[in-house]
Structure formats: structure tokens, C-alpha cells
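Friendly challenge for the regulars: who can give me the C-alpha cells for this chain first? No prize, just bragging rights.
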Amino acid sequence: MSDDLKATPLLAEHQALGGRLVPFAGYRMPVQYAGVVKEHHAVRQAAGLFDVSHMGELRLRGPEAQAVVDSLVTNFVGKLPVGRAKYTAAVNEGGTILDDLIVYRTGEEEMLVVCNASNLEKMSAHFAAHASGRCDFEDESEDTALIALQGPAAVAIARDAGFSEEALGLKPFGLASFELAGAKVTAARTGYTGEDGFEIFCANAHAAPIWRLLMERGAAHGIAPAGLGARDTLRLEACLCLYGNDIDETTNPFEAGLGWVVKLDRGDFVGREALQRIEAEGVRRKLVGFEMTDRGIARHGYPIVDDAGETIGEVTSGSPGPTVGKNVGLGYVPLALAAEGTPLSIEIRGKRVGAAVVRTPFYKRP
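First reply, four minutes later:
Bragging rights claimed.
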């Protein structure tokens, strides 16, 4: 593994737990511990603990901070209350996706934008440029740890670990700051697994003690450390887009099924004109979910073909779904082939394997 890779403040914890480390977004990250399927089931049935400290954290402060953020994202965050967060996207002038984001209003004149690790340099420069002369901007990514506690036992574990009553009572996309293990933390009721849970922000120096506290208090509840492998199968079952696979700068929100985070009936924002045009003209393709009807696993990059063997699309994400018990995937197909029940073929090592468009998400928690 390259010596150029960064380490999160939890590297020693992963090594002590036997995590298998791989390069990811410039970091050494655990892909699995006991195994992807075991970790997946632990999150669905009890709880899993993820290190997501590689994600980017961008802070904007000042009277215009909220307006600056609102001018750069597709969803409306101009009146987002303090203590609330919203999922959104940032697009370029052509209306294609720079990144998908969660925007948090952390104070009266303070906003926090969490971006994907692979897009940190791009998004940091983008927000910094638009903040210049209007509000203070700080890229806090290198100094901030982020731990995700996910699963049906997450609230019970959080209570046993000493979360504040305010934090325990948060609604989805709410956030609260409090002291935990002697450290100031901010917990948000957000996640990327399709399960209930929290994402916990803290300074790097406090990450390991908080991780150990959650593992210790979670033991009685069946907690397991979980790596990137399980994170991917969990988010795929829940049909949560992965930047670089399902969305990127060649895709727009409408064809990716993210039209619900585009609010065109408000003030101007970067890419609004292009998105208005795209909405008016309609899309020619759509991101659909499919399940394999023949034996085979669709993987990212595999061609989606028609009856004549002509390529009509490409698999963007695919894997076995441990909870749903089927091999599932996502991919872009022409609009005429996007209806539920439409048969498809996936080309796997030169052979056409049957699949069918199905309703998504593949999994929705009870």
C-alpha cells in the first residue's frame, strides 16, 4: 500500500480489530473486518460502527453564509433552521452533478457542508471561490473525524454511551451538540445505510476514545465494526447514489432520480437555467433499479444490452443484496426501457444474463 495515503485518526482502532485496509479516496480505509455479509447483517439487525472521517467538512460563517450555500445547491436551504440538515446536490452551469451533499445549519450565521472525499478538492475550491468577499470559509476536513453509528439498536447504544436527551430525541436530519467522553461533539440523525442512526462529528484527538466508548457500550446490543464493503451493499439496497458510480459530471439530477432535491421555484443558483431547460425538454434516459433473473452478479461498468446485443446502457452499481436475498443493481437505460417489469440483459464476461427493472428501493426499513 502506498506511503502517500492518508490515515484517519482511527487507523490504530481498525488495525487492532483486524480490519483489512485498502486505498480509498486517498486514505487507508477498512473494507471489512469479520466479512462484508456479517457486517451488513449486523447493521440491519443490530448496529454497525463506521469510520467515515475521510469525508469533507466545509464551514461557512457570517451574515451571508446561508445565502452563499443556497446559491450553490439545488435544494432550498435559504430558510433551513438552526439544528436542521438537508440532502442536496451541487451542479455546474451545464446542470450536471458536481457532488451530492448534506448541508447543516449549525448556527445563526454558520453552515456546514459535508461532501464526498473524492470531490473534496473540487468542492472546497468551489465553495471557497463563491464565499470570497461574502463570508468566512474554512475547510475543516483534515481536523475533523466522523463516525457513523447505524442500525435499529443505534438509539439504545447512544443512550448507554451518554448522548444528550436532545440528541436522542432528534428527528431525521436533525443535529445537536453536546459533550461525550469529555469532548464536544455534534451528532446528526443522518446516515448512508437505509437504517436509523447517527453521524458524530468530533475533533481528531477525540475520535479514538469515542469509537472505543461506542464499541464498548454497543457490545451488549450486538454492535460490529463495519467497513466500506458493507457500507456499499447497505446503501445499494437502500438505493442511495454513490458519486463516481451512479452520479457524476455526466449525469443530471432528473435522470438520476434526484429531481426531488431540485427546487427551481425560488432564487437563482448555479446551474438553475440549465436545469430548467432539462426539465422542460425531458430526459432521454433514467437510472433504474434491476434484479437479476438469471444467475449472475452485475458489477459497475458491465454493459446493459438489448435483444440484439447492442449496448443500451451501463451498470453503475451492482452486488448481491444480503438482506433482500437477490443480486441487484442500478444503471441508466433509455426512457422507453425504464418501466417496472421491463426485461434487460447484462453482459457478464461476454454472456448475456437476464435481469428485470424493479421498483426501488430494494430495501426499506420496517
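DSSP finds nine helices and 20 strands in the chain. Residues 204-218 form the longest helix (15 residues). Your move, everyone else.
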